[in-house]
Amino acid sequence: MYVLKGCYESVYNARWHHVVEVPGGEGMRMEVKEGKPPQPWTYRAVGYTLEKDDGVEQSGAERLRLMVLTSDKEWAYSWGWFKPIRDCYVNCEVERVWRIVSGDLTEWFSPHGRTDFEPRQRVLIGTPGIGKSMNAGSYLLYQLLQYDAEKLPVVVYVIGSKSFLLDKTSRTVTQYPTDEISRSVISSLWQRGMKGYIIYDVAMKGTPPATTFAPPQWGMIVLTTPNENNFEGWRKHKTAVPLIINCPDRTDVKAMCFWEKHNGQVEEEEEEQAEKQAREQAKYWETVEERMDKVGPIPRCIFNESEYGIRLTAIGKAVKDINASNATDYMGVGRSKIWIGEYVSHTIVKFVRVQAVSGIEVGCNAPVSRSAMATITYHLTHMTPPVDVFNLLLDNFGCFLWVVFEYAGTAAFMNPHAVDIIQRKLTELQPEGRLTSRFSVLSDNPRGHPTRSKTLKKLSDNPARINLEYGVLYLPAVGNFPLVDALFFMESPQKTLVGLQITTAGEHHTQTSTVRLFKERVASYFNGWEKLSRDMTWEIIYVQHADSTPIIDWQRCNDSANLTEAENREIKAFWEEKVHQYQVTITAEM
User: Fold this and answer.
1) Are 298 and 248 in contact (CB under 8 A)?
2) 461/12: higher pLDDT
């Protein structure tokens, strides 16, 4: 054992910054501010757990996207490593974990008239590489040190073979071998009547906690990947409650990029310096976003070029290894089964939180990225014999449909049985003043639906133009493709572009600049687009699931500040005259 000088004060006094999105032009821009955010995220109770309450955010107001805590002497996760990590990233998912643990502490230390009360034990499960250890673990450590020292005088942080005892009374950090802290140190403290909380990080290929690691009168949370070998024995013995942490979303990652490339100054800058920094930030975000489109929102991979290359190769190998005999094993997407058996599959899926019954959290697998989703769909639909992706996805996971809904929603249009139901359930959305209704081309010719898929590669990779094919579902490899999530073309009864927009919201209006960008992108993919598109009508189908707020009104195309008045007028006229809109709800019963 030995004392780590200055580490306690460094963590306890970690400096706060936060990144916010503020309105600017057509979208939002990022800003870094000092200190704690004046308006933290709000959460609402859902059964026995919490979820972020987006309903309290005001439209047009600045939005908190990321909190950053900086410890000059690093965090327990990296103590003793050759690579120092000083910044702890706290997004709404990490904050949510602390709010739940904080609730456990309140229950623990509230008067309940029992001397044998045992605090709730937790297991935090998430996709490998998203920051459970560094971010969630470090933030829990910080907040536990802030907690009332009389009630909770000791915090223990365990990672692999190293353990750290943080004593709030002496304000010291003492490092022990993990077997020693479990065998003698914790038990000695407990016998002296002290209460403590343990953060146990099951490092990659680490050792799961022994069921006797800590006394039941201490609080404990285990941080782990979804590999059940890491925690299930301990969880069952302790009746620990699972917490599922989602991957960071696109905006979270953008905020991380903005923080990493800001120059440390939050005051006004010289205009030239500010412009230079903005260019560097934009270039860095473009690089990270491109990586994220291919390997998913996994910080370990997208912020490290070497790790990115390794993961990209692994994804390619995993997809190539899929065949008709093992498709179900590889596509364990959307199942209540906690993880897939073969290690290679971990590279193409991410772990997602769903509420199963009465707000009980469970985890479910979903494609790790838009590119992986498109590639997997292409691979499965080109097999011999072909695999029915839609039925594969909808097999035995009912209430988890929304997790893979973008995947299943687009795949539904390649399933003849599903198309027969969809074409009968389509509801036309009409703009004000349009007097005549029109059946969708799918209703007039349901057999013309796509039967296979192709991937529209990222344009920055300079793909060769392709010939337009009917009966093919085109899946963009990027997640920010304008206007639609997928598209296909039908030749009969009339030449039609059908765009699929997967949405859960009750409205999904667009802008003239988005429509123009979509036209430009499509023209860049297909040979002879100008001639092909002359007499082509458009249909937009808004695809929703049963728990969505149904779209019932015409979705507008609003003016863009980046276009001229004449350009706005021309595109809006096209939208109202040439575009037909429909809504359909996809259910597991299809």
Assistant:
1) no
2) 12
Last residue of a domain, one of 220, 244, 268: 244
Q: List phi, psi (to 5°) of 474.
A: -95, 120
| Structure confidence at residue 327 as a pLDDT band (50, 70, 90) | low
Tokens of 495: 């030449």
Radius of gyration of the chain (CA): 26
- The count of other CB atoms within 10 Å of the CB of residue 217 is 16
DSSP letter (8 states) at residue 493 = S
Q: Are 196 and 215 in contact (CB under 8 A)?
A: no
Measure the CA–CA gap between 412 and 416, rounded to whole angstroms: 8
Tokens of 406: 């973008």
Helical packing angle, 138-146 and 92-109, nearest 10°: 40
Is residue 157 included in any domain, yes or no?
Answer: yes
In a domain, 491, yes or no: yes
Q: Within a 13 Å sphere around the CA of 331, how many CA atoms are in the beta-carbon half?
A: 30
Q: Which whole-number Å values give the CA distances from 524 to 51, 305, 418, 483, 520, in the listed order? A: 41, 29, 31, 15, 6
DSSP 387: P
Chosen domain end from 217, 244, 271: 244
392 pLDDT exceeds 60?
no
**Is residue 293 domain-resident?**
no
Asked if residue 358 belongs to a domain, the reply is no
| CA angle in degrees (0–180, nearest 5) for 452-453-459 | 160
177, pLDDT greater than 90: yes
Domain count, the chain: 2
| Tens digit of each residue's pLDDT (9 = 90 or more) over 57-80 | 666 678 999 999 999 999 999 887
Could you report the per-residue pLDDT of 477-489, keeping only the tens digit for each?
887 899 999 999 9
Of 452-466, 522-536, 571-585, the poorest mean pLDDT is in: 452-466
The helix/strand/coil state of 459 is: helix
Residue span of the structural domain in which 549 resides = 407-586
For 553-566, the pLDDT digits (tens) are 999 999 999 999 99
Judged by DSSP in three states, 246 sits in coil
